[in-house]
Design a protein that fits this description.
The chain has 358 residues and is mainly β. It has helices at residues 3-9, 13-24, 37-52, 273-276; strands spanning 31-33, 61-63, 68-72, 75-78, 83-85, 91-95, 101-104, 109-111, 113-117, 122-125, 130-132, 135-138, 143-146, 151-153, 155-159, 164-167, 172-173, 185-189, 194-197, 202-203, 206-210, 215-218, 223-224, 228-232, 237-240, 245-246, 251-253, 280-283, 288-289, 294-296, 299-301, 306-307, 312-313, 316-317, 321-324, 329-333.
């Protein structure tokens, strides 16, 4: 059966095998076997014996690695239109569909990583990337781009239908923070959702949960400690500016998590499509969020502000102020902050970050 015929009939070649066998088996015994060291050495003899006994390839039996057209150290291609460009040693991969591509740049280190990739999807790993102990699952028509110089450790990604993940250059996804709790990092990006992280981000272990059609955009020079949970409901968005510093156990949510109804009218009052698409979180540039804080939808935090530890934010916080409490309230205005502790010169706050509160 030609490849385009397989595609016309089903989007998954494993489904095609099952359907093809079911159509032709006529109550005979079916032989299926896969690639491993033993079968590789005897497959030609097995095929010869099977043919002599009336078995037909691709109807009565399959040898799953026969789909490989080319396999070199820096290139892979199979008969389903899937390809790998670049040195992929150390990468375990499984193409379960058609016309997907993995592109690997120069001087990339890959250790103990697995990619499961379906139809018409693209994974790009830039130059000088260090990529270890991670697993990526890509559904149909997904795109993941990992920029130059990124350091990725212990990351599990579930990229669903038509989702989009972009890590700009020199992003670090690290394990454990100061203490290795072996939590790992899990990013679930649902149908048509988008995740973008700017250059030089430093991210420890936690969870991104983006439901369908949601959008999480993080600017350059972002940092967040371990234990974060960013949960975006369908059709909502979170935007974080440049040079923001989040401590550990930060919780951001664009929804209530469960439905709430008005008993008199019987109507959903918190999570319909119309309500959800109006919800967002917008955090400006150079914002510091203290440990164990919660930031909810309808929040806007101005440039240069500080959110104190254990605060709950669900309102508008102006620029260059300190807000604390539950709910968070402004307790001091006209402040600027820098990452360096004990500094005596306000220039550590960075250019343009020391402004009067408006």
């Amino acid at each position: 059966m030609e490849n385009n015929e397989w595609q016309d009939k089903t989007s998954d070649w494993m489904d095609d095998i099952v359907e093809n066998v079911y159509r032709y088996y006529n109550h005979r015994k079916i032989v299926l076997w896969g690639a491993y060291e033993g079968s590789d050495t005897i497959r030609e003899k097995l095929k010869e014996k099977l043919t002599e006994n009336g078995y037909k390839e691709n109807t009565d039996y399959y040898y799953f690695c026969d789909c490989i057209i080319q396999q070199r150290d820096d290139y892979y291609e199979d008969s389903h239109g899937n390809r790998i460009f670049g040195a992929y040693q150390g990468l375990k991969f499984a193409f379960s569909g058609f016309h997907s591509t993995i592109r690997i740049g120069k001087d990339v280190t890959i250790k103990n990583c697995t990619v499961y990739i379906h139809n018409h999807s693209n994974l790009t790993i830039g130059d000088d990337v260090y990529f270890t102990d991670s697993i990526i699952r890509m559904d149909d028509k997904t795109r993941i781009e990992i920029g130059r110089g990124c350091q990725i450790q212990d990351l599990a990604v579930d990229a669903r239908l038509m989702s989009d993940i972009l890590l700009h250059d020199e992003v670090s996804v690290n394990r454990g923070g100061y203490w290795d709790f072996n939590r790992g990092t899990k990013w679930i990006v649902d149908k048509e959702a988008k995740l973008e992280i700017g250059c030089r981000g430093i991210i420890f272990d936690g969870i991104f949960l983006l439901e369908k059609n949601s959008d999480l955009k993080i600017g350059d020079d972002f940092s967040v400690g371990w234990g974060y949970c960013f949960a975006l409901q369908e059709y909502t968005s979170v935007t974080i500016g440049n040079d923001c510093m989040f401590s550990y156990d930060i919780d951001m949510r664009t929804n209530d998590g469960h439905s709430i109804f008005d008993i008199k009218t019987g109507k959903n009052i918190n999570s319909t499509y119309e309500i959800s698409k109006s919800r967002s979180i917008v955090i400006g540039n150079h914002v510091w969020v203290g440990m164990r804080s919660i930031v909810l939808y309808h929040t806007e935090i101005g440039d240069g502000s500080i959110i104190g530890a254990n605060s709950l934010v669900k309102n508008r916080i102006p620029n260059n102020c300190i807000a604390v409490g539950s709910p968070a309230k402004v307790v001091k205005t006209d402040v600027a902050w820098g990452r360096e502790s004990g500094a005596e010169d306000m220039t550590v706050c960075g250019p343009g970050n020391a402004r009067m509160t408006r």
